[in-house]
Amino acid sequence: FDDHARMLEALHAHLGIDRPYVLGISFGGVVALRYAMLHPERIGGLLPVSTFSELDAQLECHAMNLYNGLVGIGFEFYLDLLMPLNFSNAYISANRELMQVIKRVGASTNELYGIQNLMESLRDFQSITPELERIQCPTMILNAEYDYLTPRHLHDTMRRGIGSSRLVLVPHVCHAFTLEIPELTSRLVAHFVEQAESAAWQGDQ
Predict the structure, then answer these.
(1) DSSP state of 54
(2) What are phi and psi of 49, to 5 degrees?
(3) pLDDT tens, 157-205?
(4) Residues 27-59: pLDDT tens digits?
(5) Which spans in the chain are helix H?
């Protein structure tokens, strides 16, 4: 996670992007949190989405099941395990053909051993919750109402630990709500950036 955060910061520096807004989803949310911890002077705003600063027992079990499915059966089975965790019942029911497209795209565009390395990084993951207080930038934490993979209490932990944060709960959706409701997600992000840029953001935990 730290390697990814450092590479992302180096990319921003190379491109001349000063004080970027960093959004990360799930694994990427941990990278975004680490970015804000490692480079507090470089970040303009932070958006951790469907993510965690520590593992609970259920998430550890999910991670173990996903990893065993990935290495024991294959990447497509890994994606099959993720589908009901990522999307709401209503979305799956209404988009069964699209689910197969999402699965094919996921299987063809992700690098198998890269995903395996990510899953293995959870094996030795140490809580970063004690370091949340290092994050000083405006922070909007997004969590879906029915996120069974990274549920609300994990996001409440981040909300309590980051002084400039606010938690926004998105109703009727699951872990991958950014794919399920991209228009609403975009509006939430745009509103956050506007408020942060105008110094109107209320990070009241």
Answers:
(1) S
(2) -125, 130
(3) 999 999 999 999 999 999 999 999 999 999 999 999 999 999 999 999 9
(4) 999 999 999 999 999 999 999 999 999 999 999
(5) 2-15, 27-38, 57-72, 75-86, 89-94, 96-109, 112-121, 152-161, 177-180, 182-197
- Asked whether the beta carbons of 173 and 180 are under 8 A apart, the reply is yes
Report how far residue 190's alpha carbon sits from residue 183's, in angstroms, rounded to the nearest whole number.
11
Residue given tokens 């405006």 in the structure block: 138
Confidence check: pLDDT of 89 > 90: yes
Query: What does the block give as tokens for 28?
Result: 């990427």
Any idea which residue has 């970015």 for tokens? 35
Tell me the whole-structure pTM to 2 decimals: 0.94
The Cα 55–Cα 66 span in angstroms is 15
The residues, ordered by sequence, that sit 6+ positions from 57 with a Cβ below 8 Å of its Cβ are none
How far is 26 from 52, CA to CA, in rounded Å?
7
Question: pLDDT value at position 53?
Answer: 98
Contact between 28 and 51 under an 8 Å Cβ cutoff? The reply is yes
Q: Which residues contact 60 (CB under 8 A, 6 or more apart)?
A: 122
Give the type of residue at 63.
A
Dihedral of the CA atoms 97, 142, 114, 71 (nearest 10)?
-60
